[in-house]
Design goal:
CATH architecture of the largest domain: Orthogonal Bundle
Number of strands: 0
Strand content: under 5%
Shape: globular
Number of domains: 2
CATH superfamily of the largest domain: Farnesyl Diphosphate Synthase
CATH class of the largest domain: Mainly Alpha
């Protein structure tokens, strides 16, 4: 199996709609975004699929070394072998990959966020930086498009958080900020137990309505930031 086929399979197996958006890109851009997405999946899977946090931390440390080695001209993993030929052309830097790893490390180090600024920092690492790299690959001609990409990444990650409240609870994680749980009088133990009537209470519904409205607002703000010159190129996003 070639490195490119490995990345293709990794992206397809995720079941994400991102994969299908990539199919509309020209070959070089499609190969670059597929390899980068495969990298993100590899690192994210370390946290989601490794039950022992010590083992997960060791694996993330390995990925950090592999990324550094790849940018030093010595990639070994199929994902890095597939990604590196595109790094210079699309301005993919080591700091981008390290930011994604840092975000996944946060998943090992904490399971709660006290307030929205703290959560936004996490979202920046696992989604905003990803959006920046993706915007470069899709074709960015205006520097202002980077701000669009970061805000779109934040909106998308908040959407993931809304969707995954139950799945995250199974892993003992609550991404909804503690200050907002308190604002709507929703208790953490209610979410972690995942028992009725917490999912249908007026309190929880009000909390999630608040989350959804913020995500919708951020999508609108992101699109307002997208320069006209890059609107066509950024359609896959």
């Amino acid at each position: 199996m070639t490195p490119q086929q490995y990345c293709q399979d990794k992206a397809a197996q995720s079941g994400s709609s991102f994969y299908y958006a990539f199919l509309f890109l020209p070959p070089q851009r499609r190969a670059a975004i597929t390899a980068f997405y495969a990298f993100c999946r590899e690192v994210d899977d370390v946290v989601d699929e490794t039950q022992d946090s010590g083992v997960a931390a060791t694996k993330l440390a390995w990925w950090r070394k592999e990324a550094a080695a790849a940018f030093a001209g010595q990639p070994s993993h199929p994902v890095m072998l597939a990604l590196m030929p595109h790094a210079a052309a699309f301005e993919i830097r080591l700091e981008h990959l390290n930011a994604v790893i840092d975000g996944c490390q946060m998943d090992l180090d904490q399971t709660r966020y006290l307030d929205f600024p703290g959560l936004a920092r996490y979202c920046h690492l696992v989604a905003g930086v990803v959006g920046e790299v993706a915007s470069n690959i899709f074709g960015r001609s205006d520097a202002a498009t980077t701000a669009f990409a970061h805000k779109l990444g934040l909106a998308m990650q908040l959407t993931n958080i809304i969707r995954d409240v139950g799945d995250d609870a199974r892993r003992g994680r609550i991404y909804l900020p503690v200050s907002e749980l308190q604002q709507f009088d929703v208790k953490a133990h209610e979410i972690l137990k995942r028992q009725s009537p917490w999912g249908y209470s007026e309190r929880f519904t009000a909390l999630m309505t608040f989350q959804a409205k913020r995500a919708h607002r951020l999508y609108d703000e992101a699109l307002a930031l997208l320069p006209e010159a890059d609107r066509q190129a950024q359609k896959p996003g």
